[in-house]
Amino acid sequence: MNEDFLAQRLAKRKEQGLLRSLKLNEGLIDFCSNDYLGFANSGELHSLIAHFPVPPQHTVLGSRGSRLLAGNTAFAEELEQFIADFHRAESGLIFNSGYDANAGFFAAVPRKGDIVLYDELIHASVHDGIRMSKVAAISFLHNNIEDLREKLEGINESKPDSQEVFVAVESVYSMDGDLAALSAFSETCENFNARLIVDEAHATGIIGKEGKGLVNELGLEKKVFARLHTFGKALGTHGAILLGSKLLRSYLINFARPFIYSTALPYPALVAIRCAYELLPKADQQRSQLMQLIIQFKKEMKLMTGFEVLESSSPIQSVIIPGNERVRKVAESLQEAGFDVRPIVAPTVPAGRERLRICLHAYNTEEEVKKLFGNLMAFGAR
Ligand SMILES: Cc1ncc(COP(=O)(O)O)c(C=O)c1O
Question: Where are the domains of the chain?
Answer without folding.
Answer: 27-42+283-381, 60-281
